UniProtKB/TrEMBL annotation:
<dbReference type="InterPro" id="IPR028939">
    <property type="entry name" value="P5C_Rdtase_cat_N"/>
</dbReference>
<dbReference type="InterPro" id="IPR036291">
    <property type="entry name" value="NAD(P)-bd_dom_sf"/>
</dbReference>
<keyword id="KW-0560">Oxidoreductase</keyword>
<dbReference type="GO" id="GO:0006740">
    <property type="term" value="P:NADPH regeneration"/>
</dbReference>
<dbReference type="GO" id="GO:0070967">
    <property type="term" value="F:coenzyme F420 binding"/>
</dbReference>
<dbReference type="InterPro" id="IPR010185">
    <property type="entry name" value="NpdG"/>
</dbReference>
<feature type="domain" description="Pyrroline-5-carboxylate reductase catalytic N-terminal">
    <location>
        <begin position="17"/>
        <end position="114"/>
    </location>
</feature>
<dbReference type="GO" id="GO:0005886">
    <property type="term" value="C:plasma membrane"/>
</dbReference>
<dbReference type="GO" id="GO:0050661">
    <property type="term" value="F:NADP binding"/>
</dbReference>
<dbReference type="GO" id="GO:0052851">
    <property type="term" value="F:ferric-chelate reductase (NADPH) activity"/>
</dbReference>
<dbReference type="GO" id="GO:0016651">
    <property type="term" value="F:oxidoreductase activity, acting on NAD(P)H"/>
</dbReference>
<dbReference type="GO" id="GO:0015677">
    <property type="term" value="P:copper ion import"/>
</dbReference>
<protein>
    <recommendedName>
        <fullName>Pyrroline-5-carboxylate reductase catalytic N-terminal domain-containing protein</fullName>
    </recommendedName>
</protein>
<dbReference type="InterPro" id="IPR051267">
    <property type="entry name" value="STEAP_metalloreductase"/>
</dbReference>
<dbReference type="Pfam" id="PF03807">
    <property type="entry name" value="F420_oxidored"/>
</dbReference>
<dbReference type="GO" id="GO:0008823">
    <property type="term" value="F:cupric reductase (NADH) activity"/>
</dbReference>
Length: 232
């Protein structure tokens, strides 16, 4: 069993510039808001720079003075120290394939959940040839250090600055221990949030799929449920 490092043993994640590709969607914008509130420079990426800048301007209208700006995806990926992939599932592979050079050598954090939705039956996990979205990212980005994380975070809570603490754990998965340690530390930059090592990347499928269960829980109980790992 891999020993969980305490927050004091994790690397210092402060000062990192964070690029969020797909940052115009709710999940990406929510993460951008939280990391910018934590003092990180954040670059929202989109296929169109003006759309990305509009999303950044929206966040600054919510919290004045945030260190966030917009850029076209390639520019955001190039300028960032660490890149979060938050694009819709249908655009996942083509987005990554188009950005191989810009993402080479970088830690790439995939938080995409391959889900389908059927009327009357709710959300369900989609099959992925590579096993999971994160494994697909690793197969495409062979020169990047791919980590899976931030799958079970409520976009609604992220986007509400009146919510001072995100009371949840983030499962962090990957094959590169230095990279997973840094992403755990990055999760801990958001108040109330904790990064927990969840295994190697081949375990990402069940983490991504569990999002469908959380959606069902939240619909039934009208909640914004997250995940807490006990006894760690």
């Amino acid at each position: 069993m891999t020993e969980q490092k305490s927050p004091h043993d994790l690397p210092d994640a402060s000062g990192l510039t964070i690029g969020i590709l797909g940052g115009t969607g709710d999940q990406g914008k929510g993460l951008a808001l939280r990391f910018a509130m934590a003092g990180h420079e954040v670059i929202i990426g989109s296929r169109k720079a003006d759309r990305a800048q509009e999303a950044a301007d929206d966040l600054r209208s919510v919290v004045a003075g945030l260190p966030v700006r917009g850029a076209e995806n390639a520019a955001a990926a190039t300028a960032a120290d660490i890149v979060i992939i938050a694009v819709p599932w249908e655009g996942h592979r083509p987005t990554l394939e188009s950005l191989r050079p810009e993402l080479a050598g970088k830690i790439v954090v995939d938080c995409v959940n391959p889900l389908g939705f059927e009327k009357g039956k709710g959300a369900f996990a989609l099959p992925v040839e590579e096993g999971s979205a994160a494994e697909q990212a690793a197969a495409v980005l062979t020169d990047s250090r791919v980590v899976a994380a931030f799958h079970h975070v409520s976009a609604k809570l992220l986007l509400d600055p009146s919510v001072e603490s995100m009371d949840l754990d983030v499962l962090v998965l990957g094959n590169d221990r230095e990279a997973t340690d840094l992403v755990q530390a990055l999760a801990g930059r958001i108040p109330g949030m904790r990064g927990i090592y969840g295994g190697r990347l081949h375990n990402a499928h069940q983490v991504e799929a569990f999002t469908a269960n959380l959606i069902s829980i939240n619909r039934r109980y009208k909640a914004h449920a997250g995940l807490r790992v006990t006894d760690v």
